Amino acid sequence: MPPPIALTIAGSDPSGGAGLQADLKTFHRFGCYGMSAVTLITAQNTQGVSRVDLLDPTVVLAQLEAVWCDLPPAAVKTGAIGSAALIEAVAGFLATRRGCPLIVDPVMISKHGHRLLPEDAVRALTEHLLPLASVVTPNWHEAGALTGGLVHNHADARRAAYALRATGAAAVLVKGGAGHDGLSADLLVDAEGELELPALRLASRATHGTGCTFAAALTAHLALGQPLREAAIRAKAFVHHAIATAPGLGGGVGPVNHWA
Ligand code: PXL
Predict the structure, then answer these.
(1) What residues are in contact with ligand 1 under a 6 Å CB criterion?
(2) What is the pTM of this model?
(3) Count of Cβ atoms closer than 10 Å to residue 230 Cβ
(4) What's the pLDDT at 113?
């Protein structure tokens, strides 16, 4: 049996901790065959982002067309897409090719605070991409930005999750990593209701790419045919372990352990 194919549509992080590099490593870790369509190229390391260059939408569409007809994916993930024009191009492509799970990680700001999505592109995300999503995985900041408010606590996160489901996303998983309590609890809202995913918060500097790695693990488990709730529980456990066993690389916000 060939392995399931997982495709990421995301930005490049040359330091290998986040972006499409984190996605490919995580797909590989779970036995999926990983493919990547590049949307933007960052220049960065664990200490900061020095440059972001967006690719032309036609360049992204050409990559998607090339791989889709020859190696149809079992699950697709989106990461940093970079502009309203790019989001509209990607969503337009995916709208005509439904049928496999779509995991939308609404990447907006890097761990260093560098903006990866301009504010005027947030609306393109909610209007065009979220309605296609099987699951969308915002952190508290992104959940607030996508719903036109601020998320400061678990009650805000719950409200934002329901508001995001109203955009047409089949499920919403709001990550609780930005909280200050000892439990970094995520909240999943799907057609069946709510599922809380608690995990002991780790005091670690190695959090570069945690969001990408989590969404990529979720994508891999869905590509392998697991139900969403099971996939979410496993992805959460994986990221926790990946932070706990981080390799200690770089002088700044270091990468997690993608072999965890
Ligand atoms: O973790 C968010 C993220 C996504 N994609 C790219 C990134 C980052 C964070 O640095 O660089 C390309």
Answers:
(1) 10-13, 18-19, 42, 44, 79-80, 107, 110-111, 116, 209, 211-212
(2) 0.97
(3) 12
(4) 76
